[in-house]
Amino acid sequence: MYKLLIRPILFCFDPEQVHHFTFSLIRVLNKIPGFGLLFQSIYEVKNPKLEREVFGLKFKNPVGLAAGFDKDAKLYQELSNFGFGFIEIGTLTPKPQEGNPKKRLFRLKEDSAIINRMGFNNGGVLEAVERLKKNNGVLIGGNIGKNKNTPNEEATSDYEICFEALFPHVDYFVVNVSSPNTPNLRALQEKEPLTQLLQTLQNLNSQKPKQKPILLKIAPDLTNEQLLDIIDIVNETKIAGVIATNTTLSREGLQSENKSEMGGLSGKPLTNRSTEVIRFLSEKSNKSFPIIGVGGIHSADDAIEKLNAGASLVQLYTGFIYEGPKLIKEINERILSNN
């Protein structure tokens, strides 16, 4: 129904406007008594065999929603009714920011892809904290970044602010230094600044009565040498794991007219590269840390490939938009059938 009826209508309108419209619609529907349970009955797959224990957390299933969809933690409770095992919010920054000028979100229909140059638009970490205080049992990841106007040499303090504010309200953290839409952010992926940033957060973490997992989200555009550096950094700082991968700057093989828009590309064109990065990290590290696989998952087969390549969990974003919520159910059913 989604691909035949709902998606063609939604795809007639501006992507960012549609995003806000669907948020409002999902929120309204979930306020109608029984609708949340109806969504769960349609899309949720409950089975103990789907449960995963990864970096000390228990996930009811291994399929999550990637960061960027619910940046401000406005809809995590309602979105969990579609059968996600966990929801990642953000990227959040210390201060609210508008992000980049519109238009900044583009569908590439012929490529089943999206280009975005949103620029960490969010209401600030403290706004999100107020919403997270109302969480009723959803496993939440907190994706954190720096404000656009914060210079890289002061970036660590932005991540510290977000870490401290979110700590009581999320189950794990994701350090985002790989978005292509904040000027010079990817420079923080270089070995020395990245090690310093992660070590600072780990030091804060170690002072807590109970530590929380910290993960690093990396770009798919890193070279093999840089990926080896990532393995060294993870082992040195002892963070919990890696999310592979964020959006790409590559435009190789695209067919859509608007393929030259600036920003990060997600969707089917990223499928193979993100899986390659997962496999490389898993093999070269001797599976020494967990990996969350994300990038171009548009089918159950895509998800299984990433799990077979070494991912412990997977996340959806563009595939969720193109394929609809049934994709979550299909992946979980395929995992069960492979057991």
From TrEMBL:
GO terms for cellular component: cytoplasm; plasma membrane. It catalyses: (S)-dihydroorotate + a quinone = orotate + a quinol. It is an enzyme of class 1 (oxidoreductase). GO terms for molecular function: dihydroorotate dehydrogenase (quinone) activity. Signal peptide: none annotated. The keyword Oxidoreductase applies. Its EC number is 1.3.5.2. Belongs to the dihydroorotate dehydrogenase family. Type 2 subfamily. This is Dihydroorotate dehydrogenase (quinone). It comes from Flavobacterium piscinae.
